[in-house]
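Morning run. Coffee first, then this:
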Amino acid sequence: MKKIALIFLSTLLWAACKNDLQEKNLPTKVQEETNKVVLVDTLKEFKTDIDITPPQHIELKHQQLVEKEDEKDAIGPLLKDERFLKETDSYVLDFNYPFLNEAWKPTHQNFNHYISKEYLNISEIEAQILEDKELLCDTLRIHQIREKRLVNYKVYQVNEQLLSVLFYKENYYSGAMHPAFTFDCLNFDLERGVFMTYEDFFIQGSEEELRNILNETLSGKIQKGDVFYDCWDITSDDFFRYKNNFVVDDQRVEYYFEDCVICPSYTGQYSVEIPLEKLLPVLRRYHLNPLKF
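And here it is:
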């Protein structure tokens, strides 16, 4: 009975994401014939090298994220890996996160304080999990399933000035067959000891122009097929909500989005990479910008 309930709830989540597709500007082919509109199934039209089912693609999508290379090992003693683990009968919290070596520079404590006291707010997370469990239906006996919140990270260093961190959270909700990933990106100026935002990298008021650049990149992937079938352009509202959700290296800016923002859960990827040369029209030109051009 529990297995049936889990499958049912997972199917509902998948269907909800699929329904959200209908509200987006999807890459479909339209044939006009006697004033009728015929939609071509893009899932059948675009084929990948490996014929995999949607659940398999979800697992592959997650695996590619977890196994993605970063520069953690190359950074060395500047950064140390920390972990918080708590297991109860109701939930598991397993957080891996970076701390900067404060012996190198006192302002590194600004980064560490934000991560430990604000970003990883343990008491708030615990309260939210317990509140969510109280709202679930007892007849499905979901309360007996331990929920999990896992946090891990990727880190990149453009130069001696900038540390770029991607946090990805695996949320294992009661009744879901697959974890849901959410993302947060932080860019920290190592010289000044402050966090940097969109306006530190890009010209003020350039959001719409950068969104167009991002959509041009995404549309190219959609047209090629690959794994981006059934995806769509990012809307203005979504871009403004995620405009600070990017990491950088010396070659590109990479934006991260959750499922159903640019792609449904069963296709696409979580991020879109934009080469720096494409961003020249919107890059802010001042000496504090670590993105050199």
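The two ends are 60 Å apart (CA to CA). Good start to the day.
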